[in-house]
Amino acid sequence: MHLIAVRDTTLAVHTRGSGIPLLLLHGFPLDHAMWAGQEPLAESLRLIVPDQRGFGRSGGGGPESIAQLADDCVALLDALHVGEPAVICGLSMGGYVAEHIAARHPDRVRGLILVDTKLEADTPEAQAGRRDLAERVERVGQEILADAMIPNLLAKSDAARKSPRRGEIEASLRRTIMSTPISTIVAALSALGARPDMVEPMRRVTAPTLLVVGAEDTITPPECLERAEAVFPNARLLIVPRCGHMTPLEEPATFNAAVLEFLREAAGHPAVPVAAG
Ligand code: MLT
Question: What is the dihedral of CA 235, 241, 245, 248, to 10 degrees?
Protein backbone atom coordinates (compact mmCIF):
# COMPACT_ATOMS: atom_id res chain seq x y z
CA MET A 1 0.00 0.00 0.00
CA HIS A 2 1.15 3.55 -0.70
CA LEU A 3 0.00 6.53 1.32
CA ILE A 4 -0.81 9.43 -1.00
CA ALA A 5 -1.72 13.00 -0.08
CA VAL A 6 -5.06 13.71 -1.71
CA ARG A 7 -7.00 16.99 -1.17
CA ASP A 8 -7.27 17.50 2.62
CA THR A 9 -6.26 13.95 3.62
CA THR A 10 -4.06 10.94 2.95
CA LEU A 11 -5.43 7.92 1.09
CA ALA A 12 -3.94 4.44 1.29
CA VAL A 13 -3.94 2.76 -2.12
CA HIS A 14 -2.86 -0.60 -3.48
CA THR A 15 -1.71 -0.50 -7.11
CA ARG A 16 -0.55 -3.34 -9.33
CA GLY A 17 -0.25 -4.17 -13.02
CA SER A 18 -0.29 -2.03 -16.14
CA GLY A 19 -2.65 -1.28 -18.99
CA ILE A 20 -6.18 0.10 -18.79
CA PRO A 21 -6.70 1.59 -15.30
CA LEU A 22 -9.36 -0.21 -13.22
CA LEU A 23 -10.41 1.62 -10.04
CA LEU A 24 -11.98 -0.77 -7.49
CA LEU A 25 -14.12 0.90 -4.80
CA HIS A 26 -15.03 -1.07 -1.69
CA GLY A 27 -18.38 -1.20 0.09
CA PHE A 28 -19.37 -0.11 3.61
CA PRO A 29 -17.84 -0.70 6.19
CA LEU A 30 -14.94 -2.44 4.46
CA ASP A 31 -11.63 -1.56 2.79
CA HIS A 32 -9.42 -2.49 -0.19
CA ALA A 33 -8.98 -6.05 1.13
CA MET A 34 -12.41 -7.10 -0.17
CA TRP A 35 -10.91 -6.99 -3.69
CA ALA A 36 -8.11 -9.52 -2.96
CA GLY A 37 -9.73 -12.00 -5.36
CA GLN A 38 -9.31 -9.50 -8.22
CA GLU A 39 -5.47 -9.59 -8.06
CA PRO A 40 -5.30 -11.85 -11.15
CA LEU A 41 -6.77 -8.95 -13.18
CA ALA A 42 -3.42 -7.20 -12.69
CA GLU A 43 -2.06 -9.51 -15.41
CA SER A 44 -3.89 -7.37 -17.97
CA LEU A 45 -5.04 -4.20 -16.20
CA ARG A 46 -3.67 -1.46 -13.95
CA LEU A 47 -5.45 -2.08 -10.63
CA ILE A 48 -5.99 0.95 -8.37
CA VAL A 49 -7.56 -0.14 -5.10
CA PRO A 50 -7.91 2.58 -2.45
CA ASP A 51 -9.16 2.60 1.10
CA GLN A 52 -11.73 5.35 0.89
CA ARG A 53 -11.60 8.34 3.25
CA GLY A 54 -11.76 7.19 6.88
CA PHE A 55 -11.61 3.45 6.02
CA GLY A 56 -8.67 1.04 6.25
CA ARG A 57 -5.40 2.92 6.51
CA SER A 58 -6.69 6.14 4.95
CA GLY A 59 -7.05 9.31 6.94
CA GLY A 60 -9.84 11.84 6.73
CA GLY A 61 -12.12 10.92 9.61
CA GLY A 62 -15.01 9.51 7.58
CA PRO A 63 -16.94 10.82 4.58
CA GLU A 64 -19.19 13.87 4.61
CA SER A 65 -20.95 12.82 1.42
CA ILE A 66 -20.77 10.32 -1.42
CA ALA A 67 -19.87 13.21 -3.73
CA GLN A 68 -16.83 13.94 -1.54
CA LEU A 69 -15.68 10.31 -1.94
CA ALA A 70 -16.13 10.60 -5.71
CA ASP A 71 -14.05 13.77 -5.87
CA ASP A 72 -11.38 12.08 -3.69
CA CYS A 73 -11.15 9.30 -6.27
CA VAL A 74 -10.61 11.70 -9.16
CA ALA A 75 -7.95 13.55 -7.15
CA LEU A 76 -6.32 10.18 -6.43
CA LEU A 77 -6.26 9.36 -10.17
CA ASP A 78 -4.62 12.74 -10.76
CA ALA A 79 -2.05 12.05 -8.02
CA LEU A 80 -1.26 8.70 -9.70
CA HIS A 81 -0.93 10.49 -13.08
CA VAL A 82 -3.81 8.52 -14.57
CA GLY A 83 -4.68 10.96 -17.33
CA GLU A 84 -6.65 8.57 -19.53
CA PRO A 85 -10.24 7.60 -18.65
CA ALA A 86 -10.42 4.66 -16.23
CA VAL A 87 -12.82 1.80 -15.75
CA ILE A 88 -14.64 2.67 -12.53
CA CYS A 89 -15.94 -0.31 -10.57
CA GLY A 90 -17.69 -0.08 -7.21
CA LEU A 91 -19.53 -2.44 -4.91
CA SER A 92 -22.54 -1.19 -2.96
CA MET A 93 -21.33 2.05 -1.29
CA GLY A 94 -18.45 1.93 -3.80
CA GLY A 95 -21.12 1.68 -6.50
CA TYR A 96 -22.76 4.87 -5.25
CA VAL A 97 -19.33 6.53 -5.42
CA ALA A 98 -18.81 5.19 -8.96
CA GLU A 99 -22.21 6.60 -10.00
CA HIS A 100 -21.18 10.01 -8.64
CA ILE A 101 -17.88 9.85 -10.55
CA ALA A 102 -19.82 9.07 -13.75
CA ALA A 103 -22.17 12.01 -13.09
CA ARG A 104 -19.58 14.57 -11.90
CA HIS A 105 -16.54 13.58 -13.97
CA PRO A 106 -17.81 11.76 -17.09
CA ASP A 107 -14.59 12.44 -19.00
CA ARG A 108 -12.70 10.24 -16.48
CA VAL A 109 -14.88 7.17 -17.16
CA ARG A 110 -13.98 4.64 -19.86
CA GLY A 111 -16.46 2.11 -18.51
CA LEU A 112 -18.63 1.71 -15.44
CA ILE A 113 -19.05 -1.51 -13.43
CA LEU A 114 -21.69 -1.39 -10.70
CA VAL A 115 -21.78 -4.37 -8.37
CA ASP A 116 -24.40 -5.29 -5.75
CA THR A 117 -25.63 -1.71 -5.57
CA LYS A 118 -28.58 0.46 -6.59
CA LEU A 119 -29.44 3.84 -8.09
CA GLU A 120 -32.30 4.92 -5.84
CA ALA A 121 -31.94 7.07 -2.70
CA ASP A 122 -32.84 5.72 0.74
CA THR A 123 -36.48 5.70 1.82
CA PRO A 124 -37.30 7.62 5.04
CA GLU A 125 -37.50 4.22 6.80
CA ALA A 126 -34.02 3.23 5.59
CA GLN A 127 -32.66 6.62 6.74
CA ALA A 128 -34.21 6.11 10.19
CA GLY A 129 -32.69 2.60 10.31
CA ARG A 130 -29.24 4.05 9.58
CA ARG A 131 -29.64 6.69 12.32
CA ASP A 132 -30.64 3.96 14.78
CA LEU A 133 -27.68 1.78 13.73
CA ALA A 134 -25.25 4.70 14.10
CA GLU A 135 -26.57 5.39 17.58
CA ARG A 136 -26.12 1.71 18.57
CA VAL A 137 -22.59 1.57 17.13
CA GLU A 138 -21.66 4.70 19.10
CA ARG A 139 -23.08 3.14 22.26
CA VAL A 140 -21.96 -0.50 21.89
CA GLY A 141 -19.14 -0.56 19.33
CA GLN A 142 -18.37 -2.10 15.94
CA GLU A 143 -19.41 -5.57 17.07
CA ILE A 144 -23.08 -4.70 16.71
CA LEU A 145 -22.46 -3.74 13.08
CA ALA A 146 -20.45 -6.90 12.35
CA ASP A 147 -23.20 -9.05 13.89
CA ALA A 148 -25.91 -7.20 11.97
CA MET A 149 -24.16 -7.14 8.60
CA ILE A 150 -22.09 -10.29 8.10
CA PRO A 151 -25.03 -12.75 7.91
CA ASN A 152 -26.62 -10.50 5.27
CA LEU A 153 -23.48 -9.86 3.22
CA LEU A 154 -23.05 -13.45 2.09
CA ALA A 155 -25.30 -15.92 0.24
CA LYS A 156 -27.42 -18.09 2.50
CA SER A 157 -28.15 -21.15 0.33
CA ASP A 158 -26.67 -24.51 1.36
CA ALA A 159 -24.44 -24.57 -1.73
CA ALA A 160 -22.95 -21.19 -0.82
CA ARG A 161 -22.56 -22.00 2.87
CA LYS A 162 -20.61 -25.16 2.00
CA SER A 163 -17.94 -23.22 0.11
CA PRO A 164 -14.53 -24.14 1.60
CA ARG A 165 -13.66 -20.42 1.72
CA ARG A 166 -16.75 -19.43 3.71
CA GLY A 167 -15.14 -19.39 7.18
CA GLU A 168 -12.12 -17.45 5.97
CA ILE A 169 -14.35 -14.87 4.19
CA GLU A 170 -16.51 -14.34 7.30
CA ALA A 171 -13.43 -13.96 9.50
CA SER A 172 -11.84 -11.40 7.19
CA LEU A 173 -15.07 -9.36 6.95
CA ARG A 174 -15.34 -9.34 10.76
CA ARG A 175 -11.69 -8.25 11.15
CA THR A 176 -12.21 -5.36 8.74
CA ILE A 177 -15.46 -4.18 10.32
CA MET A 178 -13.99 -4.40 13.83
CA SER A 179 -11.03 -2.24 12.80
CA THR A 180 -13.12 0.48 11.10
CA PRO A 181 -13.21 3.55 13.37
CA ILE A 182 -16.58 4.27 14.97
CA SER A 183 -16.35 7.88 13.75
CA THR A 184 -16.04 6.60 10.17
CA ILE A 185 -19.02 4.26 10.56
CA VAL A 186 -21.19 7.04 11.97
CA ALA A 187 -20.14 9.56 9.29
CA ALA A 188 -20.59 7.02 6.49
CA LEU A 189 -24.07 5.98 7.67
CA SER A 190 -25.09 9.63 7.57
CA ALA A 191 -23.55 10.12 4.09
CA LEU A 192 -25.22 6.93 2.82
CA GLY A 193 -28.61 8.03 4.15
CA ALA A 194 -28.30 11.48 2.58
CA ARG A 195 -27.15 10.32 -0.86
CA PRO A 196 -29.27 11.60 -3.74
CA ASP A 197 -31.29 9.51 -6.15
CA MET A 198 -29.07 8.77 -9.16
CA VAL A 199 -31.66 7.47 -11.64
CA GLU A 200 -31.89 10.65 -13.76
CA PRO A 201 -28.10 11.37 -13.84
CA MET A 202 -27.42 7.77 -14.89
CA ARG A 203 -29.71 8.12 -17.95
CA ARG A 204 -27.00 10.40 -19.39
CA VAL A 205 -24.05 8.01 -18.92
CA THR A 206 -22.67 7.16 -22.36
CA ALA A 207 -19.85 4.89 -21.15
CA PRO A 208 -20.49 1.16 -21.50
CA THR A 209 -21.83 -0.19 -18.23
CA LEU A 210 -21.73 -3.64 -16.66
CA LEU A 211 -24.13 -4.41 -13.82
CA VAL A 212 -23.33 -7.41 -11.60
CA VAL A 213 -25.39 -8.78 -8.73
CA GLY A 214 -25.43 -11.93 -6.65
CA ALA A 215 -28.58 -14.00 -7.21
CA GLU A 216 -28.91 -14.25 -3.41
CA ASP A 217 -28.15 -10.60 -2.60
CA THR A 218 -30.74 -9.49 -0.03
CA ILE A 219 -29.31 -5.96 0.58
CA THR A 220 -29.51 -4.86 -3.06
CA PRO A 221 -31.40 -7.76 -4.67
CA PRO A 222 -31.29 -8.51 -8.43
CA GLU A 223 -34.43 -6.35 -8.98
CA CYS A 224 -32.33 -3.25 -8.10
CA LEU A 225 -29.91 -3.99 -10.93
CA GLU A 226 -32.73 -5.03 -13.29
CA ARG A 227 -34.25 -1.57 -12.76
CA ALA A 228 -30.81 0.00 -13.33
CA GLU A 229 -30.38 -1.91 -16.60
CA ALA A 230 -33.44 -0.10 -17.96
CA VAL A 231 -31.97 3.29 -16.97
CA PHE A 232 -28.49 3.21 -18.55
CA PRO A 233 -28.30 3.80 -22.29
CA ASN A 234 -25.68 1.07 -22.69
CA ALA A 235 -25.75 -1.52 -19.91
CA ARG A 236 -25.83 -5.25 -19.57
CA LEU A 237 -26.63 -7.25 -16.46
CA LEU A 238 -25.02 -10.35 -15.03
CA ILE A 239 -26.70 -12.23 -12.17
CA VAL A 240 -24.21 -14.56 -10.47
CA PRO A 241 -25.53 -17.74 -8.77
CA ARG A 242 -24.45 -18.69 -5.22
CA CYS A 243 -23.54 -15.08 -4.37
CA GLY A 244 -25.00 -12.63 -1.88
CA HIS A 245 -23.97 -8.96 -1.57
CA MET A 246 -20.23 -9.64 -2.03
CA THR A 247 -20.07 -11.16 -5.52
CA PRO A 248 -16.38 -10.37 -6.30
CA LEU A 249 -15.36 -11.92 -2.97
CA GLU A 250 -17.74 -14.89 -3.13
CA GLU A 251 -17.13 -15.90 -6.77
CA PRO A 252 -13.93 -14.10 -7.84
CA ALA A 253 -13.24 -16.23 -10.94
CA THR A 254 -16.73 -15.61 -12.39
CA PHE A 255 -16.51 -11.91 -11.57
CA ASN A 256 -13.03 -11.48 -13.06
CA ALA A 257 -14.03 -13.29 -16.27
CA ALA A 258 -17.06 -10.97 -16.57
CA VAL A 259 -14.85 -7.88 -16.19
CA LEU A 260 -12.45 -9.07 -18.89
CA GLU A 261 -15.28 -9.97 -21.27
CA PHE A 262 -16.90 -6.58 -20.66
CA LEU A 263 -13.63 -4.82 -21.47
CA ARG A 264 -13.17 -6.88 -24.65
CA GLU A 265 -16.67 -5.90 -25.79
CA ALA A 266 -16.26 -2.30 -24.65
CA ALA A 267 -13.03 -1.90 -26.63
CA GLY A 268 -15.16 -1.87 -29.78
CA HIS A 269 -17.60 0.66 -28.37
CA PRO A 270 -17.41 4.09 -30.02
CA ALA A 271 -17.54 5.94 -26.65
CA VAL A 272 -14.43 4.11 -25.43
CA PRO A 273 -11.11 5.81 -26.11
CA VAL A 274 -8.41 3.58 -27.62
CA ALA A 275 -6.73 1.51 -24.88
CA ALA A 276 -3.25 2.53 -23.84
CA GLY A 277 -0.90 -0.28 -22.81
C1 MLT B 1 -22.55 -1.51 1.39
O2 MLT B 1 -22.43 -2.73 1.29
O3 MLT B 1 -21.70 -0.72 0.97
C4 MLT B 1 -23.77 -0.99 2.11
O5 MLT B 1 -24.64 -2.03 2.40
C6 MLT B 1 -24.45 0.05 1.29
C7 MLT B 1 -25.71 0.56 1.91
O8 MLT B 1 -25.92 0.37 3.11
O9 MLT B 1 -26.51 1.19 1.20
Answer: -70
What pLDDT digit, counting tens, does each position of 193-251 carry?
999 999 999 999 999 999 999 999 999 999 999 999 999 999 999 999 999 999 999 99
Strand 209-214 with 109-115, pairing: parallel
Q: Which residues line ligand 1 (CB under 6 A)?
A: 27-28, 92-93, 192, 219, 245
Instruction: Name the phi and psi angles at 169, rounded to 5.
Output: -65, -45
Q: In one letter, which amino acid is 46? A: R
In sequence order, the 6+-apart residues with CB closer than 8 A to the CB of 118 are: 95, 220, 224, 225, 227, 228
User: 276, exposed or middle or buried, with CB in 10 Å at 0-12, 13-18, 19+?
Assistant: exposed
pTM, rounded to two decimals: 0.96
Q: Closest ligand 1 atom to the C-alpha of 219? A: 5
- On whether the CB atoms of residues 271 and 222 are closer than 8 A, the answer is no
Neighbouring C-beta atoms of residue 179, cutoff 10 Å = 13
